[in-house]
Amino acid sequence: MEKKKYMVIFQPSARRGLIEEDTNLIEASRQLGVDIEALCGEKKVCGKCKVRIEEGFFEKFGIQSSRSNVSEWQEEEDKFFTPVQKDEGYRLGCVAKVKGDLLVFVPEEARAGKQVVSKAARDIHIDWNPAVKQYSVEVVPPTFEEPSGDFERICRELERNFGLRDLTIDWHALRKLPRRQREGNWSVTVDVWMDKEIVRVLPAKTEDYYGIAIDVGTTTVAAYLCNMRTMEVLTTTSMMNPQCKYGEDVMARITYHMMNPGGLETMSNDLVEGLNKLISQGCESTHPPKKRKKKKAEDVDASTEPVELPDTTKAEEESEEVDPKKYPCLTTNDIVDLTLVGNTAMHHILLKLDPEFVGLAPFPPVIHRSLDIKARDLGVNINDSAYVHILPNEAGFVGADNVGVLIAEEPYKHDQMQLLIDIGTNGELVLGNNKKLISCSCATGPALEGAQLSYGMRAAPGAIERILIDPETHEVDYKVIGRDAWKKYSKPEEMKTKGICGSGILDVLAELYSSGVIEKSGRFSKNQKSNRYRVNPDTRQPEFVIAWANETSIGKDVVITQKDVRQIQLGKGALYTGCKLMMRRMGLSQVDTIKIAGAFGTHVDKTKALIMGLFPDCDLEMVHAVGNAAGDGARAALLNREKRAEANWVARNVEYIELTVESDFQQQFMEAMQVPHMKDAFPHLEGVVPPEVLHQK
Amino acid sequence: MEKKKYMVIFQPSARRGLIEEDTNLIEASRQLGVDIEALCGEKKVCGKCKVRIEEGFFEKFGIQSSRSNVSEWQEEEDKFFTPVQKDEGYRLGCVAKVKGDLLVFVPEEARAGKQVVSKAARDIHIDWNPAVKQYSVEVVPPTFEEPSGDFERICRELERNFGLRDLTIDWHALRKLPRRQREGNWSVTVDVWMDKEIVRVLPAKTEDYYGIAIDVGTTTVAAYLCNMRTMEVLTTTSMMNPQCKYGEDVMARITYHMMNPGGLETMSNDLVEGLNKLISQGCESTHPPKKRKKKKAEDVDASTEPVELPDTTKAEEESEEVDPKKYPCLTTNDIVDLTLVGNTAMHHILLKLDPEFVGLAPFPPVIHRSLDIKARDLGVNINDSAYVHILPNEAGFVGADNVGVLIAEEPYKHDQMQLLIDIGTNGELVLGNNKKLISCSCATGPALEGAQLSYGMRAAPGAIERILIDPETHEVDYKVIGRDAWKKYSKPEEMKTKGICGSGILDVLAELYSSGVIEKSGRFSKNQKSNRYRVNPDTRQPEFVIAWANETSIGKDVVITQKDVRQIQLGKGALYTGCKLMMRRMGLSQVDTIKIAGAFGTHVDKTKALIMGLFPDCDLEMVHAVGNAAGDGARAALLNREKRAEANWVARNVEYIELTVESDFQQQFMEAMQVPHMKDAFPHLEGVVPPEVLHQK
Description:
Largest interface: A-B, 45 and 45 residues
Low-confidence stretches of chain A: 113-119, 294-318
Mean pLDDT of chain A: 86
Helix content of chain A: 25-40%
Strand order of the largest sheet of chain A: 14-13-12-15-17-16
Strand content of chain A: 15-25%
Largest sheet of chain A: 6 strands, mixed
CATH architecture of the largest domain in chain A: 2-Layer Sandwich
Oligomer: homodimer
Distance between the termini of chain A: 54 Å
CATH topology of the largest domain in chain A: Nucleotidyltransferase, domain 5
């Protein structure tokens, strides 16, 4: 009898497929080309293959995922999980077996291949001038002649030594002040926010102090834990946005809020809980590895009831000779500042600001300007007295994340006309220079990042990232991440191909087009030259085989379908239309520089992107990938307070263009879906693409 | 068989005595001279005689009070109490019977005689310039051409109409902003704190808005609910400081904190809970009487989880034609500002600041300067976004309450040398003028207020407030509060005497001295002329009968004992020593004006006070009672922000003198215990007191 099959979807890659009942999740992940670390070879001893079963009805996938849809908890799992994690649905992938439809989240640490296109911090130049600065002073103890207050005593020294005047103090910091001052024998270290407010008093002299910059993406959240003194990024942690279960994109989440009383609070609370985990993880990574499990348990406690860990913990570790430079052993209380960027909807949902009007024409946000909110008000577990600085929004659909890109890239400081493209789940564009800046938002969808495509996957080992298709034979050569040799120079079984990553998708499309497999319209050409083209008997969709099953580690042909091509066309059409309409507004036929932000930009082949007509013609030398520039902006605002002022200035001085109200938007959009573009000239493509292809009608 | 007797103590009057088992609390209160309202004559139908049984061990009284020390709850009581009140120990005085030792608190509303010397607001001059100001603006709705944020839209109008720039907004106010703006059809009323931060957005145009000034005394807490537009005091509410159960005075409470882990939090939380009730009561008093019970229930809900009452409540009442001018029907959410004064220990305990060091030489406070803390951080139930402004402390033992007195009386604005005396549970003195101000604290104890004396009581009907003793016969004539005719012109049974109030105590002592019943040393004279002097057979203490049992409503002689006299001598000695040492510091032999703040000052006979040697010789025309000046100061700071700056200035510019370190303090104190004073000249007493008495050695 044939076994029953269930839909299993792995996040964040969104790889999915029908899996036989009783298959364990490691095996399922292999079948679907998802990488889960399993060092011990499924012997249930390494504990690396931790995954989390998500619960709920996932409309997009049409599945009901539940923790009862996997086999029962096994004793072997106990030692790898805290009771809290168990409650959260964590399992070992080698133990848990499929018993029904499942949405499985693979945490960063369990992903086998390191993500190549990560949200890692770039080395951008930032001048040191943080909002929170640290000062050490020696205080004169009180006497009958001079019995003034503890606070005033510290202020006097801060004014005398550092010229700080009229300081206030956060209540929680004040509560700790008398003890700390006496513990340090009248020597204290004080953290001052914006030269205004004391947010922490520590006993004795301390030099290093810490902050976190967070980029809340619609799909992914990334946190950069920084040493505020050295500006060094200690660690980068990331996770799937926990709101994904309420909707894949911004509009879906706004709708969730409108349809569900209390939905806004739920989404916000889930995100805050996620942020707290991310912050805990960041702190935990500063402990020596052997200590981490213990620490983790404490952090879990700290997240339910924030308490400052007793200093004895640190003393203990020092006695075991842990190098404090290498392992500062931070707790969440050591984080004294936090900056945050995110698009306007993420911003509103996090702050529990009604996002309904952002979703309704003319899409006004509740607020543009940056906010400084006490972390404790938001429920964010960092130091009791610390602020969360949320960068300003430009407009309803161009949020603080785009402002982050702007203050990282600073187009307003240059004469050249720059086009900044930030492609995430939503596309945001800025065009301009030191004279004028305009911005717009375009619904690129997730296809350009390789998500929601038949064989799309994250940029990880086994992902196709480069491809060549012979125009004469339609034969395919390609390269996967994690292997230098192209297929042509490899045995099929050496490839271990799993899918196509975001940047590879464009390569594939560009080659399909250049080689004539697809037409300018995106349709598969009638003039096919290989057996790679076929109509799938199940879906009745035309598809083109990129890798045959024997080259893959998933035992199936990796294909690209007509629907996949359409998805990408819609995305790139939206992007291209945005660029062109913005250029028209500015009276430009050409831009000087194009900067592509987001993971997408990092590995994209610029030529192929141009062939695909992703953005307007430009000297390829002047097209740059700038990584997670939004996160860089958050980090800049963490380490330099001037950047916060700059952010508020730029948010109010970028003119937002609502594209969809342009009278010819629809026509422009239809034309832009062509590969590369029906009407526009692409002089920089001459000599790159065969003339007959480039100029075909 | 004789019935068993138990100690029953009524608060806040501290009247106490042994009461037979099964006596109900109304009867017990009568026997002890405490006034409890009982309109229905103990028929259990009026519900006026509500009292609260306090639980715990009361060290000072040596009793263990418990709710099981009264008879069982009766069905009749159900309709007068909410379940919350029942849990809190509320009972009807006519129902509950004595079954053991009891500490019974009589709430303000159950006290039969209105307190004559109340903490009512005085009519002091205050310029209107509150920290929170209210502005109404019309906002332009967003369009595609101008789709900027809701917040920025309001700010633009506030800047254009009122010149307010660079405003920030409290997060909670921001959360409500989008709906409120649309509810008001783009007309909004905005409350702005210190021209900096928006703390409330209301739909449509509104004129009146409200704040509360609170004086946290060691024993009594008083709240003044003010219309912030008209500056009118709508209502004054007061209660016993709920911390009294942890100790009668400041040092006892500091000790409680040091001896009990978590004691600081407990005391703070109890006070905050008390403040919330006081605020609720204030708001409730703005509702029409017939609606109050219903409102009360809502307020109880609001205190556990602060929610803004739906606007429908107001609409409902308006439809029943309640005059909104007379009954603005406030809820705690309508309170948008709160100022607070209290001595340094009350300040520290409320704010959970470690008070240990305030109690240890050299007594430094944790902080002097004023604090602005979000009410929500403190757990104070007013508007979500409102601040609590806590006035600054002068020194460890001269707190924000004294600063309140100073900004109300403004001695620093005059040439005359003023002596400000604030007598509460602790005495605080300020001496100076526009050139220099010095302050000190003196341990007057509660005796000067009539507390802890054998027949001391609050200034209420039946309390002796004036007395005359014939020097020839030692016969006594007196007057009680609530009756114009003196005893001489009354039948004994008409007097209904109950005890001696604070101001009366001084009168009694002064007359005892002037008539020669006691000597300058405070000892009863050997030369007694009546049978009023006797040695109590039980206590073996000498005592002097002021009112015979048949003149009283308590059926017992009202006496003053040698111990009572000593208590008062200690109090007045501390006060007088403070005054004299301060004058010596300033090089003064005479002051121009004396102002006496606190309930004590309001009804004190100035001449008698001088005879008693309470304060140094002064032209009696220039001795003024200024009522609850500390509360006035809190109100001034509520309604005029300049007063807040003035308070911080004055708190740092009053020089605090620690009296106990003066080398001759002990000698001065011993001398000052004399009546009036052994060595000092009292020219203003010449002709007032018989020369042979005044100049007796």
